[in-house]
């Protein structure tokens, strides 16, 4: 049976060998009762395991929102119905379900909203009571509604950042010009912002009525007892008239439609779609099987042709979306942007072959087996069986629809697939959409067989430069990172911003190349090169494709060894850096961060801004840049990491040749400057013309070598997300801040640990008291066991996501080697993080946040009073 949500990806599965005989499906054992008020109960008893799924389906989704179409009313209710009822306080429902050993959640689609609890069967009666209470008696508390509005606005933002969601919405909004399927389930932000709680309550009261609801319960349950329970519970809730909702029918498409848009993404997402009938139409089984033949796994026609044979796509899928009204058959692919037209032509050729020659008996049998297996696998859990029964009832009022559908699937013949292609896959019925990168991407060969990633190898050149190489043949790409100890830690108040200016001018010309020639040569290769300066280092990054490695390393070496710092280029980059400093002054968070560092690290380099000050940057000279280069960009002070589709010995030979002219020099920052003792609390205030107030509370943290480094990282992680104690108490419960979090910045020497928030200036004193109180609790008690485990999972997950990129991995490993941790330090991190105990966390929290003074930095919109920029509490 077709899914009711558009899949963004289709997992490839290997089907079982066809047996040659049909699978016989018995009648459903589910029973159903309809109460006098129209409420329906569906129960399927299965006592094979002591578990159950309790679901309540409201036959209302985003297409039923009438005059508020596009507001996302159904979605808001999904968020709000568990926020409290007439008899249950906010959070009580979640706590009750947790006490039952259960899991509660909900989802919204175009045509329904479903709430469910999966739990041990002993708690079924309580779960039914909880869901019935939420359906009929939710109060939508005003304070919870206000909080949830912001949660949903963040969900809007996440959707706008997700290329998969944006691509899916683009396809539907182009394919459907009249039907509400064109409108996202979540709605549009500008319409959503017009809603009031009263509007949502009115919608709830109108649509959440007994005759628009049905319960589905599966598992080790007693159907008669559940029937009696619901009959008694709903006796006081009469049937209600449902206002009819006009849903526009989609007219027949009479011509090809195309919509291509740009988006900040790296790959093109191409979608081709054709209108097809609704779920109950007799052509749907053949269309579903066609989607499997075309895009159902690694042996499908589109995968074999477009990915394996032609190497045109990174992924390709086919799907049939057949909800209650007419749907869409879609083919989606991810690809390099320059291949979009070629991919479209290749898809059409595959379809033409089916239209002309049909499909083989073996292809059809395999698709039938995959469809049967997928459907049956969905019935292995109580939740899956409940969802299946619910869909059957809502779409067809036939609890045996799954059986009938799968019987129809087994009756499909090869000529049926050929027929539906001819009927529906016409150019007049075609919609083509794509989401494309805003910039070009390097051309890369596709379809190469993936190989294992080799171990990192280390070589030391005659000039002291350490070379790290990792062979990674997954893609014909190479990333190189050359990094040297320097950075803010080498600067003074007079030279503040020097590292950043040096980084920006390294690429502005060498003895052999102008800035334009460097850019032209790299971009001709389809590569990229850039430089950056940080707190403890300066580095140059290079990315090229495999065939261009030698040329890329030659350019990288030229930039590192022979920069000329042309006077005109220095002046241009100085102007850019000065503009960046002014831009930072427009950002209250940047102003507060700089103020905190100055206060926490007076007279120490970590008290300086990486961008410098207007005075310091104006005073920097070309001669200082040359001396900086001569002192720090030397072999004994550097590491070069080359990761990608390379051979280690070949890289070693190339680097020996290209970097032979790099002077050996000596290692820098062997004894990094230590900050003077910070002995008393200091508060610094800076006025701002902005409307918000920023509060930062900073402590001297640790360095990257500290034994409790990961305990502090875990405190930072636990304090920084939407589930943190700070966010929940100060942002959610008290409504005192727009944002709240923390940041740990260990370096070669002790760095800052900062707690920060943004607030309404009128709430500043109140939130400061509460913030310090919450930090005090953390200092005394450390983290809870739950917080620590959640932080470990998040920290390790973020590292894993980061390290999937060769460039990111090369950068991390190069810095570890440069700083003295060792190139293989990354191997120890996971175990070290997992080994951190609650006692260690508590000890470091007490030592840093209880036993030492702190600095407070405040940026607020008020006139600066004389002598008020620094005061002691």
Topology readout:
Elements: E1 31-34, E2 40-45, E3 51-58, H1 73-80, H2 92-99, E4 103-108, E5 113-120, H3 124-137, H4 142-161, H5 163-175, H6 189-192, H7 197-207, E6 213-219, H8 223-233, E7 257-263, E8 268-276, H9 284-295, H10 301-309, E9 315-321, E10 327-335, H11 340-357, H12 361-377, H13 382-396, H14 401-411, H15 414-424, E11 430-437, E12 456-460, E13 466-471, E14 477-485, H16 498-506, H17 515-524, E15 528-533, E16 537-545, H18 549-561, H19 567-585, H20 588-600, H21 614-619, H22 622-632, E17 638-644, H23 648-658, E18 682-687, E19 693-700, H24 709-718, H25 725-733, E20 739-744, E21 752-759, H26 764-781, H27 785-803, H28 806-819, H29 826-835, H30 838-850, E22 855-860, E23 870-871
Parallel strand pairs: 2-6, 7-11, 13-17, 18-22
Antiparallel strand pairs: 1-2, 3-5, 3-6, 4-5, 8-10, 8-11, 9-10, 12-13, 14-16, 14-17, 15-16, 18-23, 19-21, 19-22, 20-21
Structural features, described:
By secondary structure, the chain is of the alpha+beta class. Helix content is about 40%, strand content about 20%. The chain is built from 30 helices and 23 strands. The strands form four sheets. It has a six-stranded mixed sheet with strand order 1-2-6-3-5-4, sandwiched between helices. Strands 12-13-17-14-16-15 form a six-stranded mixed sheet, with helices on both faces. Strands 20-21-19-22-18-23 form a six-stranded mixed sheet, sandwiched between helices. A hairpin with a 3-residue loop joins strand 15 (about 530-535) and strand 16. It starts with about 30 loop residues before the first strand and ends with a strand.
